[in-house]
Amino acid sequence: MMAGIVACVVLLSLGAACLARSRSQHLSVETLLVADRALPAPMLFILTVGEIYSIGSIVAFPAGLYTHGISYGYWFLGYLLLAFPVGYFVGPAIWERARRYDACTVPEVFGRYFGSVVFERLTAWGCIAALVPWGQFQFIGLRATLGMMGLPGAPAAGLAACAVIAFAYVALGGMRASTYVAFLKDSLMLFGIAAVGVAAICAQYGGTGTYVAHPVVFRQPAVTDMVFAVSTTVYQGVGFYFQPSVTPYLFTARSAQAVRRAMVFMPLYMLMYPFAVFATYFAIRSLPPLRDVNGVFFHVAGMLLPPWVVALVMAGAVLAGLLVLAATSLNIAAMMTRSIMPRLAHGHPRRAINLGVILFLVLALVATAHAPAIMLTALNVSGYVGIQFASLWFVVLLDRPVPARVAGGGVVCGAVTAIALFASGLSVGGINPGFMGLLVNCAVVFCPLWRRKRVT
Protein backbone atom coordinates (compact mmCIF):
# COMPACT_ATOMS: atom_id res chain seq x y z
CA MET A 1 0.00 0.00 0.00
CA MET A 2 2.78 2.41 0.87
CA ALA A 3 4.45 2.07 -2.53
CA GLY A 4 1.10 2.47 -4.26
CA ILE A 5 0.32 5.73 -2.47
CA VAL A 6 3.77 7.13 -3.23
CA ALA A 7 3.40 6.12 -6.88
CA CYS A 8 -0.01 7.81 -7.09
CA VAL A 9 1.40 11.03 -5.65
CA VAL A 10 4.30 10.98 -8.11
CA LEU A 11 1.86 10.45 -10.99
CA LEU A 12 -0.19 13.36 -9.68
CA SER A 13 2.94 15.51 -9.73
CA LEU A 14 3.55 14.55 -13.35
CA GLY A 15 -0.02 15.61 -14.06
CA ALA A 16 0.73 18.97 -12.46
CA ALA A 17 3.80 19.33 -14.69
CA CYS A 18 1.67 18.50 -17.74
CA LEU A 19 -0.83 21.15 -16.65
CA ALA A 20 1.98 23.71 -16.53
CA ARG A 21 3.01 22.69 -20.04
CA SER A 22 -0.54 23.02 -21.37
CA ARG A 23 -0.80 26.56 -20.00
CA SER A 24 2.39 27.68 -21.75
CA GLN A 25 1.76 28.85 -25.30
CA HIS A 26 5.34 28.06 -26.26
CA LEU A 27 8.27 26.35 -24.58
CA SER A 28 11.27 28.51 -25.37
CA VAL A 29 14.61 28.41 -23.60
CA GLU A 30 13.54 31.43 -21.53
CA THR A 31 10.37 29.59 -20.51
CA LEU A 32 12.42 26.57 -19.55
CA LEU A 33 15.00 28.44 -17.49
CA VAL A 34 13.28 31.52 -16.04
CA ALA A 35 9.55 30.95 -16.75
CA ASP A 36 9.61 33.98 -19.10
CA ARG A 37 10.27 36.19 -16.04
CA ALA A 38 6.53 36.20 -15.47
CA LEU A 39 5.85 34.60 -12.07
CA PRO A 40 3.76 36.75 -9.72
CA ALA A 41 4.60 36.94 -6.02
CA PRO A 42 2.44 33.95 -4.89
CA MET A 43 3.90 31.62 -7.53
CA LEU A 44 7.42 32.89 -6.83
CA PHE A 45 6.87 32.17 -3.13
CA ILE A 46 5.71 28.62 -3.89
CA LEU A 47 8.64 27.98 -6.24
CA THR A 48 11.27 29.45 -3.95
CA VAL A 49 10.21 27.70 -0.76
CA GLY A 50 9.69 24.55 -2.78
CA GLU A 51 13.31 24.66 -3.87
CA ILE A 52 14.83 26.01 -0.64
CA TYR A 53 13.18 23.52 1.73
CA SER A 54 14.50 20.38 0.13
CA ILE A 55 14.54 16.78 1.26
CA GLY A 56 17.03 17.89 3.90
CA SER A 57 14.16 19.34 5.93
CA ILE A 58 12.86 15.81 6.51
CA VAL A 59 16.09 13.82 6.37
CA ALA A 60 19.16 15.95 7.12
CA PHE A 61 17.73 18.31 9.75
CA PRO A 62 16.47 15.53 12.09
CA ALA A 63 19.66 13.54 11.41
CA GLY A 64 21.78 16.55 12.34
CA LEU A 65 19.85 17.14 15.55
CA TYR A 66 20.01 13.45 16.43
CA THR A 67 23.77 13.29 15.84
CA HIS A 68 25.05 16.70 16.96
CA GLY A 69 22.48 17.87 19.49
CA ILE A 70 20.86 21.24 19.99
CA SER A 71 23.86 23.27 18.80
CA TYR A 72 23.06 22.03 15.28
CA GLY A 73 19.60 23.52 15.51
CA TYR A 74 20.92 26.91 16.58
CA TRP A 75 22.71 27.68 13.35
CA PHE A 76 20.36 25.75 11.04
CA LEU A 77 17.33 27.76 12.09
CA GLY A 78 19.32 30.93 12.77
CA TYR A 79 20.72 31.34 9.29
CA LEU A 80 17.29 30.85 7.70
CA LEU A 81 15.82 33.54 9.92
CA LEU A 82 18.61 35.91 8.89
CA ALA A 83 18.48 34.97 5.20
CA PHE A 84 14.94 36.21 4.61
CA PRO A 85 15.47 39.83 5.76
CA VAL A 86 18.67 39.90 3.71
CA GLY A 87 16.77 38.50 0.74
CA TYR A 88 14.10 41.18 1.11
CA PHE A 89 16.72 43.81 0.25
CA VAL A 90 19.12 41.99 -2.10
CA GLY A 91 16.55 39.84 -3.92
CA PRO A 92 14.97 42.69 -5.93
CA ALA A 93 18.44 44.04 -6.77
CA ILE A 94 19.53 40.63 -8.06
CA TRP A 95 16.40 40.46 -10.23
CA GLU A 96 17.14 43.93 -11.62
CA ARG A 97 20.68 42.94 -12.63
CA ALA A 98 19.48 39.73 -14.28
CA ARG A 99 16.88 41.68 -16.29
CA ARG A 100 19.38 44.40 -17.21
CA TYR A 101 21.82 41.88 -18.67
CA ASP A 102 19.05 39.64 -20.08
CA ALA A 103 20.61 36.73 -18.19
CA CYS A 104 19.04 33.32 -17.67
CA THR A 105 21.90 31.94 -15.57
CA VAL A 106 24.20 33.29 -12.88
CA PRO A 107 27.41 33.11 -14.98
CA GLU A 108 25.74 35.22 -17.68
CA VAL A 109 25.26 38.03 -15.17
CA PHE A 110 28.92 37.91 -14.16
CA GLY A 111 30.24 37.54 -17.70
CA ARG A 112 28.23 40.48 -19.02
CA TYR A 113 29.00 42.71 -16.06
CA PHE A 114 32.75 42.12 -16.31
CA GLY A 115 32.61 42.05 -20.12
CA SER A 116 34.50 38.77 -20.37
CA VAL A 117 33.39 35.53 -22.01
CA VAL A 118 36.32 33.73 -20.39
CA PHE A 119 35.24 34.92 -16.94
CA GLU A 120 31.68 33.77 -17.65
CA ARG A 121 33.00 30.34 -18.58
CA LEU A 122 35.16 30.09 -15.47
CA THR A 123 32.35 31.17 -13.15
CA ALA A 124 30.11 28.62 -14.85
CA TRP A 125 32.57 25.88 -13.89
CA GLY A 126 32.63 27.25 -10.34
CA CYS A 127 28.84 27.29 -10.13
CA ILE A 128 28.69 23.71 -11.38
CA ALA A 129 31.23 22.71 -8.74
CA ALA A 130 28.82 24.10 -6.14
CA LEU A 131 25.69 22.61 -7.70
CA VAL A 132 26.92 19.05 -8.21
CA PRO A 133 27.15 18.30 -4.44
CA TRP A 134 23.73 19.90 -3.99
CA GLY A 135 22.26 17.58 -6.63
CA GLN A 136 24.10 14.66 -5.08
CA PHE A 137 22.59 15.66 -1.74
CA GLN A 138 19.10 15.14 -3.20
CA PHE A 139 19.98 11.70 -4.56
CA ILE A 140 21.37 10.62 -1.20
CA GLY A 141 18.21 11.82 0.51
CA LEU A 142 16.07 9.96 -2.01
CA ARG A 143 18.09 6.82 -1.39
CA ALA A 144 17.49 7.12 2.35
CA THR A 145 13.77 7.64 1.77
CA LEU A 146 13.38 4.76 -0.67
CA GLY A 147 15.42 2.50 1.58
CA MET A 148 12.89 3.02 4.35
CA MET A 149 10.11 1.70 2.11
CA GLY A 150 11.65 -1.79 2.07
CA LEU A 151 10.85 -2.58 -1.56
CA PRO A 152 12.68 -5.41 -3.36
CA GLY A 153 15.31 -3.95 -5.65
CA ALA A 154 15.11 -0.57 -3.96
CA PRO A 155 16.74 1.80 -3.79
CA ALA A 156 18.69 1.13 -7.02
CA ALA A 157 15.66 0.78 -9.27
CA GLY A 158 13.85 3.50 -7.36
CA LEU A 159 16.71 5.96 -7.87
CA ALA A 160 16.70 5.23 -11.59
CA ALA A 161 12.98 5.96 -11.66
CA CYS A 162 13.60 9.19 -9.74
CA ALA A 163 16.10 10.30 -12.38
CA VAL A 164 13.53 9.66 -15.12
CA ILE A 165 10.84 11.61 -13.26
CA ALA A 166 13.20 14.54 -12.59
CA PHE A 167 13.98 14.69 -16.30
CA ALA A 168 10.26 14.62 -17.07
CA TYR A 169 9.72 17.70 -14.90
CA VAL A 170 12.41 19.53 -16.87
CA ALA A 171 11.22 18.39 -20.29
CA LEU A 172 7.57 19.19 -19.61
CA GLY A 173 7.96 22.76 -18.46
CA GLY A 174 11.20 23.61 -16.72
CA MET A 175 10.80 26.20 -13.98
CA ARG A 176 7.09 26.68 -14.60
CA ALA A 177 6.47 22.96 -14.15
CA SER A 178 8.52 23.07 -10.96
CA THR A 179 6.19 25.75 -9.61
CA TYR A 180 3.12 23.56 -10.09
CA VAL A 181 4.84 20.52 -8.58
CA ALA A 182 6.11 22.63 -5.67
CA PHE A 183 2.54 23.37 -4.57
CA LEU A 184 1.82 19.65 -4.18
CA LYS A 185 5.19 18.98 -2.56
CA ASP A 186 4.83 21.83 -0.03
CA SER A 187 1.36 20.65 0.98
CA LEU A 188 2.57 17.11 1.64
CA MET A 189 5.71 18.21 3.47
CA LEU A 190 3.86 20.54 5.80
CA PHE A 191 1.21 17.90 6.48
CA GLY A 192 3.75 15.13 7.00
CA ILE A 193 6.10 16.99 9.33
CA ALA A 194 3.22 18.41 11.37
CA ALA A 195 1.56 14.98 11.64
CA VAL A 196 4.72 13.27 12.88
CA GLY A 197 5.48 16.09 15.30
CA VAL A 198 1.99 16.09 16.81
CA ALA A 199 2.03 12.29 17.08
CA ALA A 200 5.39 12.45 18.88
CA ILE A 201 4.04 14.98 21.37
CA CYS A 202 0.94 12.89 22.04
CA ALA A 203 2.96 9.69 22.45
CA GLN A 204 5.46 11.32 24.78
CA TYR A 205 3.10 13.31 26.97
CA GLY A 206 -0.29 11.75 26.33
CA GLY A 207 -0.02 9.41 29.29
CA THR A 208 -0.55 6.20 27.30
CA GLY A 209 2.52 4.50 28.77
CA THR A 210 3.28 2.75 25.49
CA TYR A 211 6.71 4.30 25.11
CA VAL A 212 9.28 4.29 27.88
CA ALA A 213 11.14 7.55 28.19
CA HIS A 214 14.84 7.15 28.79
CA PRO A 215 16.69 9.90 30.65
CA VAL A 216 18.34 12.25 28.21
CA VAL A 217 21.23 14.51 29.10
CA PHE A 218 21.97 17.03 26.38
CA ARG A 219 25.54 18.19 26.21
CA GLN A 220 25.68 21.89 26.87
CA PRO A 221 27.22 23.73 23.91
CA ALA A 222 30.82 24.75 24.49
CA VAL A 223 32.13 28.20 23.64
CA THR A 224 33.49 26.92 20.34
CA ASP A 225 30.06 25.45 19.53
CA MET A 226 28.43 28.83 20.01
CA VAL A 227 31.15 30.57 17.98
CA PHE A 228 30.52 28.08 15.19
CA ALA A 229 26.76 28.62 15.42
CA VAL A 230 27.03 32.42 15.30
CA SER A 231 29.60 32.47 12.49
CA THR A 232 27.56 29.96 10.49
CA THR A 233 24.38 31.97 11.00
CA VAL A 234 26.06 35.14 9.71
CA TYR A 235 27.92 33.41 6.89
CA GLN A 236 25.03 31.39 5.51
CA GLY A 237 22.36 33.95 6.32
CA VAL A 238 24.12 36.74 4.44
CA GLY A 239 25.27 34.52 1.59
CA PHE A 240 22.16 32.39 1.20
CA TYR A 241 20.58 34.15 -1.78
CA PHE A 242 23.95 34.54 -3.50
CA GLN A 243 24.36 30.77 -3.92
CA PRO A 244 24.01 29.33 -7.44
CA SER A 245 21.54 26.84 -5.98
CA VAL A 246 19.15 29.63 -4.92
CA THR A 247 19.77 32.75 -7.03
CA PRO A 248 18.26 31.50 -10.35
CA TYR A 249 14.79 31.23 -8.83
CA LEU A 250 14.73 34.99 -8.31
CA PHE A 251 15.18 35.45 -12.06
CA THR A 252 11.70 34.00 -12.66
CA ALA A 253 9.83 36.86 -10.95
CA ARG A 254 7.57 39.23 -12.83
CA SER A 255 9.08 42.28 -11.17
CA ALA A 256 11.33 43.41 -8.35
CA GLN A 257 8.22 44.16 -6.31
CA ALA A 258 7.09 40.54 -6.75
CA VAL A 259 10.40 39.38 -5.25
CA ARG A 260 9.97 41.74 -2.31
CA ARG A 261 6.39 40.60 -1.65
CA ALA A 262 7.37 36.94 -1.79
CA MET A 263 10.16 37.48 0.73
CA VAL A 264 7.73 38.86 3.30
CA PHE A 265 6.05 35.47 3.72
CA MET A 266 9.12 33.23 3.52
CA PRO A 267 9.55 32.83 7.32
CA LEU A 268 6.05 31.33 7.65
CA TYR A 269 7.31 28.10 6.13
CA MET A 270 9.62 27.64 9.10
CA LEU A 271 6.64 26.75 11.28
CA MET A 272 7.27 23.12 10.33
CA TYR A 273 10.65 22.94 12.07
CA PRO A 274 9.37 22.80 15.67
CA PHE A 275 7.45 19.65 14.71
CA ALA A 276 10.63 18.12 13.27
CA VAL A 277 12.37 18.94 16.56
CA PHE A 278 9.59 17.23 18.54
CA ALA A 279 9.91 14.10 16.38
CA THR A 280 13.69 14.01 16.81
CA TYR A 281 13.43 14.51 20.57
CA PHE A 282 11.01 11.58 20.74
CA ALA A 283 13.50 9.39 18.86
CA ILE A 284 16.32 10.35 21.23
CA ARG A 285 14.25 9.85 24.36
CA SER A 286 12.05 6.87 23.55
CA LEU A 287 13.69 4.77 20.83
CA PRO A 288 16.82 2.60 20.94
CA PRO A 289 19.89 4.01 19.17
CA LEU A 290 19.50 4.05 15.40
CA ARG A 291 22.20 2.83 13.05
CA ASP A 292 20.94 4.88 10.08
CA VAL A 293 20.48 8.40 11.42
CA ASN A 294 19.29 9.63 8.02
CA GLY A 295 16.10 7.67 8.59
CA VAL A 296 15.32 8.94 12.10
CA PHE A 297 12.27 10.93 11.00
CA PHE A 298 10.79 7.98 9.12
CA HIS A 299 11.45 5.63 12.05
CA VAL A 300 9.35 7.89 14.26
CA ALA A 301 6.64 8.19 11.61
CA GLY A 302 6.50 4.41 11.16
CA MET A 303 6.08 3.83 14.90
CA LEU A 304 3.45 6.49 15.56
CA LEU A 305 1.32 6.86 12.43
CA PRO A 306 -0.86 4.56 10.32
CA PRO A 307 0.75 3.26 7.11
CA TRP A 308 -1.20 5.52 4.76
CA VAL A 309 -0.04 8.64 6.61
CA VAL A 310 3.55 7.36 6.58
CA ALA A 311 3.19 6.87 2.84
CA LEU A 312 2.12 10.50 2.41
CA VAL A 313 5.09 11.62 4.51
CA MET A 314 7.44 9.64 2.30
CA ALA A 315 5.72 10.93 -0.82
CA GLY A 316 6.36 14.49 0.34
CA ALA A 317 10.03 13.68 0.92
CA VAL A 318 10.32 12.04 -2.49
CA LEU A 319 8.74 15.04 -4.23
CA ALA A 320 11.06 17.38 -2.32
CA GLY A 321 14.10 15.51 -3.59
CA LEU A 322 12.76 15.21 -7.13
CA LEU A 323 11.86 18.87 -7.38
CA VAL A 324 15.25 20.19 -6.28
CA LEU A 325 17.05 17.52 -8.31
CA ALA A 326 15.19 18.58 -11.46
CA ALA A 327 15.92 22.29 -10.95
CA THR A 328 19.57 21.63 -10.10
CA SER A 329 20.11 19.48 -13.18
CA LEU A 330 18.40 22.16 -15.30
CA ASN A 331 20.70 24.87 -13.95
CA ILE A 332 23.80 22.76 -14.53
CA ALA A 333 22.75 21.89 -18.08
CA ALA A 334 21.95 25.54 -18.83
CA MET A 335 25.42 26.64 -17.72
CA MET A 336 27.07 23.89 -19.73
CA THR A 337 25.22 24.71 -22.95
CA ARG A 338 25.02 28.51 -22.68
CA SER A 339 28.32 29.47 -21.06
CA ILE A 340 30.83 26.63 -21.36
CA MET A 341 29.99 24.99 -24.70
CA PRO A 342 27.56 27.34 -26.49
CA ARG A 343 28.48 26.00 -29.94
CA LEU A 344 27.01 22.61 -29.10
CA ALA A 345 23.65 24.26 -28.44
CA HIS A 346 23.63 26.26 -31.66
CA GLY A 347 20.33 25.73 -33.46
CA HIS A 348 18.88 23.30 -30.91
CA PRO A 349 19.27 24.89 -27.44
CA ARG A 350 16.39 23.00 -25.81
CA ARG A 351 17.66 19.67 -27.07
CA ALA A 352 21.15 20.47 -25.80
CA ILE A 353 19.80 21.42 -22.37
CA ASN A 354 17.81 18.18 -22.17
CA LEU A 355 20.89 16.17 -23.08
CA GLY A 356 22.85 18.01 -20.40
CA VAL A 357 20.17 17.17 -17.85
CA ILE A 358 20.30 13.49 -18.80
CA LEU A 359 24.09 13.43 -18.56
CA PHE A 360 24.14 14.96 -15.09
CA LEU A 361 21.39 12.69 -13.78
CA VAL A 362 23.14 9.56 -15.04
CA LEU A 363 26.51 10.56 -13.57
CA ALA A 364 24.95 11.60 -10.25
CA LEU A 365 23.00 8.35 -10.11
CA VAL A 366 26.18 6.32 -10.53
CA ALA A 367 28.04 8.42 -7.97
CA THR A 368 25.29 7.95 -5.38
CA ALA A 369 26.39 4.35 -4.92
CA HIS A 370 29.62 5.70 -3.42
CA ALA A 371 28.09 8.58 -1.44
CA PRO A 372 28.81 9.00 2.28
CA ALA A 373 26.30 7.85 4.84
CA ILE A 374 25.90 11.31 6.35
CA MET A 375 24.56 13.85 3.88
CA LEU A 376 25.98 16.88 5.67
CA THR A 377 29.35 16.48 3.94
CA ALA A 378 27.86 17.03 0.48
CA LEU A 379 25.85 19.97 1.79
CA ASN A 380 28.92 21.55 3.41
CA VAL A 381 30.99 21.32 0.23
CA SER A 382 28.18 22.88 -1.78
CA GLY A 383 27.90 25.76 0.67
CA TYR A 384 31.65 26.33 0.96
CA VAL A 385 31.90 26.80 -2.80
CA GLY A 386 28.52 28.38 -3.54
CA ILE A 387 28.51 31.17 -0.97
CA GLN A 388 31.92 32.37 -2.17
CA PHE A 389 30.08 33.87 -5.15
CA ALA A 390 28.69 36.43 -2.71
CA SER A 391 31.78 38.58 -3.32
CA LEU A 392 30.98 38.74 -7.04
CA TRP A 393 27.42 39.75 -6.27
CA PHE A 394 28.70 42.45 -3.91
CA VAL A 395 30.75 43.85 -6.80
CA VAL A 396 27.81 43.68 -9.23
CA LEU A 397 25.23 45.14 -6.86
CA LEU A 398 27.53 47.91 -5.63
CA ASP A 399 28.86 48.50 -9.16
CA ARG A 400 32.50 48.56 -8.06
CA PRO A 401 35.35 48.75 -10.63
CA VAL A 402 36.99 45.43 -9.79
CA PRO A 403 38.98 43.63 -12.53
CA ALA A 404 37.69 40.19 -13.46
CA ARG A 405 40.97 38.49 -12.54
CA VAL A 406 40.86 39.97 -9.03
CA ALA A 407 37.21 39.01 -8.53
CA GLY A 408 37.86 35.48 -9.74
CA GLY A 409 40.97 35.19 -7.60
CA GLY A 410 38.94 36.11 -4.54
CA VAL A 411 36.41 33.35 -5.18
CA VAL A 412 39.14 30.76 -5.72
CA CYS A 413 41.06 31.80 -2.60
CA GLY A 414 37.88 31.74 -0.51
CA ALA A 415 36.78 28.31 -1.72
CA VAL A 416 40.24 26.79 -1.28
CA THR A 417 40.53 28.23 2.23
CA ALA A 418 37.12 26.92 3.28
CA ILE A 419 37.57 23.43 1.86
CA ALA A 420 41.13 23.14 3.20
CA LEU A 421 40.04 24.06 6.73
CA PHE A 422 37.09 21.67 6.52
CA ALA A 423 39.11 18.76 5.12
CA SER A 424 41.99 19.17 7.58
CA GLY A 425 39.72 19.56 10.60
CA LEU A 426 41.69 22.61 11.66
CA SER A 427 39.61 24.87 13.90
CA VAL A 428 40.13 28.63 14.09
CA GLY A 429 38.46 29.30 17.42
CA GLY A 430 35.39 27.37 16.29
CA ILE A 431 34.66 29.76 13.39
CA ASN A 432 32.91 28.18 10.40
CA PRO A 433 35.47 27.38 7.66
CA GLY A 434 33.18 28.91 5.06
CA PHE A 435 33.07 32.17 6.99
CA MET A 436 36.86 32.25 7.08
CA GLY A 437 36.94 31.58 3.37
CA LEU A 438 34.48 34.40 2.68
CA LEU A 439 36.61 36.82 4.71
CA VAL A 440 39.68 35.87 2.67
CA ASN A 441 37.61 36.14 -0.50
CA CYS A 442 36.33 39.65 0.26
CA ALA A 443 39.80 40.77 1.38
CA VAL A 444 41.28 39.74 -1.97
CA VAL A 445 38.48 41.45 -3.90
CA PHE A 446 38.00 44.70 -1.99
CA CYS A 447 41.37 45.51 -0.37
CA PRO A 448 42.79 46.79 -3.70
CA LEU A 449 39.85 49.21 -3.92
CA TRP A 450 40.54 50.47 -0.41
CA ARG A 451 44.22 50.93 -1.14
CA ARG A 452 43.40 52.73 -4.40
CA LYS A 453 41.17 55.19 -2.53
CA ARG A 454 43.91 55.89 -0.01
CA VAL A 455 46.43 56.59 -2.77
CA THR A 456 44.08 58.97 -4.59
Automatic annotation (TrEMBL):
Gene3D superfamilies the UniProt entry points to = Sodium/glucose cotransporter (1.20.1730.10)
Q: How is this protein positioned relative to the membrane?
A: Multi-pass membrane protein
**Which Pfam family name is an example for this entry?**
SSF
Q: Name one GO cellular component term.
A: plasma membrane
Cell location: Membrane
Q: Where do transmembrane segments lie in this chain?
A: 44-65, 72-91, 156-175, 187-206, 226-251, 263-284, 304-332, 353-375, 381-399, 406-425, 431-450
Q: Which GO MF terms does the UniProt record name? A: transmembrane transporter activity
Q: Any idea which UniProt keywords this protein has?
A: Membrane, Transmembrane, Transmembrane helix, Transport
Q: Which InterPro entries match?
A: Na/Glc_symporter_sf (IPR038377), Na/solute_symporter (IPR001734), Sodium:Solute_Symporter (IPR050277)
Q: Its family?
A: Belongs to the sodium:solute symporter (SSF) (TC 2.A.21) family.
List the protein's name: Na+/solute symporter
Source species, please?
Answer: Komagataeibacter europaeus NBRC 3261
